[in-house]
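We modelled the chain as a single entity of 141 amino acids. Its sequence is:
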Amino acid sequence: MLIALALALLVSGLVRSLWLDVYFIPSASMEPLLGTGDRILVSRTDFIGEPVRHGDVVVFDGRGSFAPLSSGASPLQDALATAGHWFGLTGSDTTYVKRVIGLPGDHVVCCDDNQHLTVNGQALAEPYLYEATWPVNRNSA
């Protein structure tokens, strides 16, 4: 039984490090495509050599840009967080799933007169977003 468990962990580790990985979606920032609590499988091999394009959904490590290089937690807390992330049970504080809006050389601005993002002076069509609905204070409208 112990050998079977060790073998299963070894195979899982190889698959996750060489072929695909599991990510937990902790927030609503990618809705409606990905909802809070979703888990996704991401191939590590399907797009090797392919350029990143506008509109692509990418997974990246944000340490040093979106997140600090060090978590400030104890080694035990870091190990438990890594284990939870590795098994797809929790999100990572440093791994992000986002849509590509701009590429190197692009000029991205928020927002034009219609409240749209612009890329290189052109309003960005974002059909993947929810239709905006905002609460209105009737006393000020």
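As a brief sanity check on the tokenised model: Residues 2-18 form the longest helix (17 residues). The chain has one domain: 15-123.
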